[in-house]
Amino acid sequence: MADSIEYLSISELVRRYRDGSLSPVEAVEAAYRRLERVEPKINAFCHLVDREESLSLARAAEARWKKAEPQGLLDGVPITVKDAILAKGWPTRKGSRLVDASPTPEDAPAVARVLEEGAIILGKTTTPEFGWKGVTDSPLSGITRNPWNIDKTPGGSSGGSAAALAAGVGHGAIGTDAGGSVRIPGAFCGLVAVKATVGRVPNYPPSAAGTMGHVGPMTHTVEDAALMLTVIGQPDPRDWLCLPAPEVDYRVGLDGGVRGLRVAWSPALGYAKVEPQVAALTAEAARVFEEMGATVEEVGAPFEDPTEVFRMHFFAGIAHSCHNFTPDQLKLLDPGLQRVVEQARQLSLEDYMTAVDRRGALGRATRAFHQKYDLLLTPTLAVAAFTAGRLAPEGWAEDWLPWTPFCFPFNLTGQPAATVPCGFTEEGLPVGLQVVGGMYQDALVLRAARAYQSARPTLDRRPSL
Q1: Which of 9, 181, 207, 266 is catalytic?
Q2: What is the pTM of this model?
């Protein structure tokens, strides 16, 4: 059993804790064995918890399970946290040499919630500097690599979280998503990743990207994503825009299927360029929804191309997060981030407010769209994973937005969106299908993703690290 513990779902792990066939100590030991094997190859961590400390927590969880008195829904479950999220006692350096390495004095809301439920955090995972791009490399921690092919990127900016999870280190992860940053690496690494409705998961400290910033779970199964969203989706007063507590556990009704739903399938949103293998795999995934009883209609351009609207909002926010740095400090930034800061500082107030108006128009358009359709399906990304250390695939512009055209629109609108694995390229790289719902339809998005994963499971395939 030891060889397979690391890839158990959270739900199965907890079931085995409950019946006594597995203990949290065994799970933590398996995670560390796996970490020792894969971390030199993938470089997914920037801070690891002491092994003995983790085992001490696991022994305490084991004792609680033996008494049938678990602390919570995640008692004894090893997980990881992106190093853009506060975790008390650990530094939060955000991939930057310019951020103080002093321990953080408090937990972010999501971290506080998983700890309350008994999770064991193995460490903090890598991110590009200030989360500015859709791949994961930084001046602080170097290049993070994809377990499916270590020559490829895992995506970003929650790339360390995705790489660790896909490699079998931890059973869930918490990342951030301001332009696709859990969905991008989720798709590249063959995982489920969820960006819930804005405000569903409290976000503190506020994202540099404002209301486009989200915190979300990354898991192997949709059931686990629903469990983690239930845990971290509780209100926290530090986020003044957070929603009230969800009325139900997101696992309730998860197997309701998609029969009778009105589903739109958009292969390019009217403006994206998509690699042929990705296009074929995601189109086939959309057809599966018809097989499951949904009414599926292909739509061309449900809204205008929002790339420049997103660019204006996102990069202005990233640049503002650097506004206190001196000219000498700015020279220490990732060179690509330096260019972003320089370009953002040229924006006028009129430019920015025009983008605000266009964002509002996009939100109205998607609200109207979901009056007709329950769900929207798209490819999660336009490409499969490409060479690590690059900002874009060879032959594409040196920009991460053209190959992520399906992700960032829904950061602008605040809608829930999830990626679920839908197959592999001829090279053996995962491809993701994105499921998008109307505002506050998080449960429906999870239900649809679950239906698809049940119909076309990919969990039998794992990286060969």
Answers
A1: 181
A2: 0.98
DSSP-assigned states of every residue in 420-451: EEEEE-TTS-EEEEEEEESTT-HHHHHHHHHH
Structure confidence at residue 1 as a pLDDT band (50, 70, 90)? very low
Check which CATH number belongs to the domain holding 358 and give it. 3.90.1300.10
Catalytic, 181? Answer yes
**Domain that includes residue 440, residue range:** 5-455
Nearest Cα neighbor of 385 from 76, 42, 78 is: 42
DSSP helix/strand/coil, 82 = strand
Residue 18 lies in a domain: yes
Active site includes 82?
yes
Options 9, 54, 82, 158, the catalytic residue: 82
94 has catalytic annotation:
no
**How many domains is the chain partitioned into structurally?**
1
- With pLDDT > 70 as the criterion, what percentage of the chain qualifies? 99
Of the candidates 157, 158, 207, 266, the residue annotated as catalytic is 157
Q: Strand 417-424 relative to strand 430-437: parallel, antiparallel, unpaired?
A: antiparallel
Q: What are phi and psi of 379, to 5 degrees?
A: -60, 150
Residue 99 lies in a domain: yes
What is the average pLDDT score of the chain? 97
Query: Is the residue at 462 inside a domain?
Result: no
Residue 249 resides in a domain: yes
Q: Binning pLDDT at 50, 70 and 90, where does residue 153 land?
A: very high
